[in-house]
């Protein structure tokens, strides 16, 4: 049970959380409103290279709720994008549970440039829920945080834990059993890493939210996906526990390909991969053939940027293999990250005296 307490007025609470990369993906919902998935999924939490820091302050001095993301003010009134609509919903919810009356200032920044074209909803949602929980003294457990985060962005519910994380599909109608659990912490397999090759930073044509809804409805191939992914989660979980890279790598690549096949089979088709993505897939295939075993696995989310899962031992070879691919604008390297953490006042993004962002916003 949550302990009800008043908002800690004027005090600033700051949390940092890493994004995550799914080894077996969530694609397709069984409930759109609650973000309930058609299948379980499993991921690795990323470290500070791909993370979000969020500060929140509730105060009577504020005349309205304010939100700043990466130096730009965003509207929290439900008129902005889908994610801020969900953030508003979460905010209303926690405020009513904690009986907090004050307005809130939220300032959030990603560790990676927005121009990298990488989704920040997972780390952003996990950092926000962690900071709100602390600010309102709610004492939420991991399950509570994961369920709340899931409603901002499904895949984000896996970012409330560090290391390797499984999001159980659940069977309950209200989603009470659909949340993330840790399979192993970040110390279990610290050699594992994600090399992200950014090939296109532009906004996607179809949002993941639209796809979660349209693929199950229109793709005949999708009928086979939930069972395939559910089996994949079992295979990956065992491979992670045993630190078996050969089994892990094949399962990761096959799941990514399976998901993208159902996307292409959606009507109208969803095509996140581009020629550069495919070139990288071949580069990884060639590297693995040369090494006569898997040393890297590619995986792609709802976009063309490649996530190359490898071990530190093979880092240089993987970087060498993609070096020949032209059009990679940026490479970001991440190890296995810990779960969200609360940071001290010195790391806050809010200026306590002025009750505004420390870094002046680019747009009023
Ligand atoms: O949580 P969303 O709506 O951003 O969905 C993204 C799902 C994938 O990234 C494509 C796969 C996954 O499980 O992370």
Give the arrangement of secondary structure elements.
Elements: E1 12-18, E2 20-24, E3 29-31, E4 36-37, E5 41-45, E6 51-59, E7 66-69, E8 72-74, H1 82-98, E9 103-110, H2 121-135, H3 142-152, E10 164-167, E11 180-184, E12 192-198, H4 208-218, H5 225-241, H6 245-264, H7 275-291, E13 296-299, E14 306-311, H8 315-323, E15 330-335, E16 341-343, E17 350-351, E18 356-357
Parallel strand pairs: 7-9
Antiparallel strand pairs: 1-6, 1-16, 2-5, 3-4, 5-10, 6-9, 7-8, 10-11, 12-14, 12-15, 13-14, 17-18
Helix pairs in contact: 1-2, 1-3, 2-3, 5-6, 7-8
The site of (3R)-3-hydroxy-3-methyl-5-(phosphonooxy)pentanoic acid has 15 residues, from α4.
Molecular structure report:
The protein is α+β, with helices and mostly antiparallel strands and 364 residues long. Helices cover 32% and strands 23% of the residues. It has eight helices and 18 strands. Strands 8-7-9-6-1-16 form a six-stranded mixed beta sheet. Strands 2-5-10-11 form a four-stranded antiparallel beta sheet. Strands 13-14-12-15 form a four-stranded antiparallel beta sheet. Strand 13 and strand 14 form a beta hairpin. Helix 2 packs across helix 3 and helix 5 packs antiparallel against helix 6. The longest helix is centred in the C-terminal third of the chain and has 20 residues. It binds (3R)-3-hydroxy-3-methyl-5-(phosphonooxy)pentanoic acid. (3R)-3-hydroxy-3-methyl-5-(phosphonooxy)pentanoic acid binds next to helix 4. The site of (3R)-3-hydroxy-3-methyl-5-(phosphonooxy)pentanoic acid (PMV) has 15 residues, from helix 4.
């Amino acid at each position: 049970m949550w302990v009800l307490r008043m908002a800690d007025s004027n005090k600033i609470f700051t949390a940092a959380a890493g994004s995550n990369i799914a080894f077996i993906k969530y694609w397709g919902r069984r409930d759109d409103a609650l973000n309930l998935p058609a299948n379980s999924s499993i991921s690795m939490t990323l470290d500070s290279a791909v993370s979000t820091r969020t500060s929140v302050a509730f105060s009577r001095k504020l005349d309205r709720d304010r939100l700043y993301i990466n130096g730009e003010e965003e509207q929290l009134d439900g008129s902005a994008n889908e994610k801020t609509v969900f953030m508003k919903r979460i905010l209303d919810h926690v405020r009513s549970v904690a009986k907090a009356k004050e307005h809130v200032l939220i300032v959030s920044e990603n560790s990676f440039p927005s121009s990298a074209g990488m989704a920040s909803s997972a780390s952003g949602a996990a950092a926000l829920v962690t900071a709100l929980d602390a600010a309102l003294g709610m004492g939420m457990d991991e399950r509570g945080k994961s369920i709340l985060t899931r409603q901002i962005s499904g895949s984000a519910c896996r970012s409330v834990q560090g290391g390797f994380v499984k999001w159980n599909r659940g069977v309950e109608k209200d989603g009470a059993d659909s949340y993330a659990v840790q399979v192993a912490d970040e110390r279990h397999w610290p050699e594992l890493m994600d090399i992200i090759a950014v090939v296109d930073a532009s906004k996607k044509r179809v949002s993941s939210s639209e796809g979660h809804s349209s693929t199950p409805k229109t793709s005949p191939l999708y009928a086979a996906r939930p069972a395939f992914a559910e089996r994949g989660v079992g295979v990956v979980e065992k491979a992670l526990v045993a630190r078996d890279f050969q089994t892990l790598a094949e399962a990761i690549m096959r799941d990514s390909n399976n998901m993208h096949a159902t996307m292409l089979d959606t009507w109208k088709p969803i095509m996140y991969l581009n020629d550069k993505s495919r070139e990288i897939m071949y580069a990884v295939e060639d590297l693995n053939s040369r090494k006569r075993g898997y040393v890297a696995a590619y995986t792609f989310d709802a976009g063309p940027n490649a996530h190359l899962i490898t071990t530190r031992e093979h880092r240089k070879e993987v970087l060498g293999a993609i070096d020949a691919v032209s059009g990679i604008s940026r490479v970001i390297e991440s190890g296995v990250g810990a779960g969200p953490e609360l940071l001290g006042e010195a790391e806050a993004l809010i200026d306590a005296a002025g009750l505004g962002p420390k870094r002046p916003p680019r747009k009023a």
